[in-house]
Amino acid sequence: MVWLADVLVREDASLRKALETITRSGKQVAVVVDGETRLLGLLTDGDVRKAILRGLSLEADVQQAMNRNPVVARAGIGTVDAITFMRSRSIRHLPVLDARRGVVELLWLDELLAAAPPLQSRAVIMAGGEGTRLFPVTESVPKPLVRIGGKPLLEILIERLRGAGIVEFLIAVHHKSAMIREQLGDGSRLGARIDYVEEPVPLGTMGSLTLARERLDAPFFVVNGDILTKCDFRAMWDFHRSQPGAAMTVGVSLHQVEIPYGEFTLRGTRVMQMLEKPRKEYPVNAGIYVLDPSVVDMIPVGQYFDAPELIHLLLSKDRIVAAHVIREYWLDVGRHPDLDKANRDVAEGLLE
């Protein structure tokens, strides 16, 4: 972790003083604060070089060279969210502020990544669907590459998983598969290792797993390629591992429904209770799963086989299916209203 005192400089410091702080800390940045440690700006070693090229001397005031509007985060941001946030903004340093804009922490991307060891797991992402409900958008691009806030949906999902420590990915493709392969490549651009499984015909959410049986030798994630979420994948992994004998863990999102009428509770013909316009909450399938590799042997080869069918099969065999509640942001981007909402939510910072 960056020691905050090692990177702070006062507002009246010179560029020389700030450069000494940058060099001493080894973090390529100085945090400029006032007398009450409220953030005024950030100064990187690159900012110093640009200032000197503009003709400023090392005795110039640090405020003449600093970035007065750096990207910041609120206190309490989690590691996964911080990593995803920093990558989405292409920044390596993130000041964390309290309610009065006091600097309480400086997050450094390299240290965050080093602190989250890779999970001994891989993620299989289902990206073969045609996305017919999103026509005409998906006439020219496969649904997993539809852009949300300027970035392909599939890349956003991979970045979230990568932030949780997952580096091995298997992408199941079919419709417009060449476009997905070209966009993602081997994954090195995203800090991941990506391989592909090509479905000869659509095989459903789980059917394509039979094509990769030899590569699935440890518990692994299966994730639909058309969801937008802040799911804490590491927490879900830990939950699955804590469930003795679990063959499958299903990610569950809590879906709220507002009933626009008064609801009666009846006993026969008697009214026992009335709730005016109640809001109901139902656990729904979020399209995120953790599977034990033995489950793959139960899936019929070469047949269309979806997640609900697998769940029913496991329950019929008395295998344990656990449920992990995803309380973070989640959205299935399957229809045009969902796509519009996804872009609004990203613009409003709900995924940050």
Regions with pLDDT < 50 over 5+ consecutive residues?
Answer: none
Largest sheet, if any? 7 strands, mixed
Number of domains: 2
- Using the 3D structure, state the CATH architecture of the largest domain: Alpha-Beta Complex
Total DSSP E strands = 19
User: Mean pLDDT, nearest integer?
Assistant: 91
Distance N terminus to C terminus? 21 Å
Q: What is the level 1 CATH name of the largest domain?
A: Alpha Beta
What structural class results from the helix and strand content?
A: alpha/beta
CATH fold description of the largest domain? Spore Coat Polysaccharide Biosynthesis Protein SpsA, Chain A
What helical percentage do the residues reach? 25-40%
| Oligomeric state of this protein | single chain
Overview of the structural elements:
The chain is α/β, with parallel strands linked by helices and 352 residues long. It folds into two domains: 4-115, CBS-domain, CATH 3.10.580.10; 122-347, Spore Coat Polysaccharide Biosynthesis Protein SpsA, Chain A (Alpha-Beta Complex). It is 26% helix and 30% strand. It contains ten helices and 19 strands. The chain has helices spanning 15-25, 45-53, 79-89, 109-115, 153-163, 177-184, 204-207, 233-242, 307-316, 336-347, and strands at 8-10, 29-33, 39-44, 73-74, 93-97, 103-108, 122-126, 147-148, 151-152, 168-173, 193-198, 220-224, 227-229, 246-258, 262-267, 270-276, 279-291, 320-326, 330-332. It has a seven-stranded mixed beta sheet. Strand 15 (262-267) and strand 16 form a beta hairpin. The longest helix is centred in the C-terminal third of the chain and has 12 residues, at 336-347. The radius of gyration is 25 Å and the shape is globular. The mean pLDDT is 91.
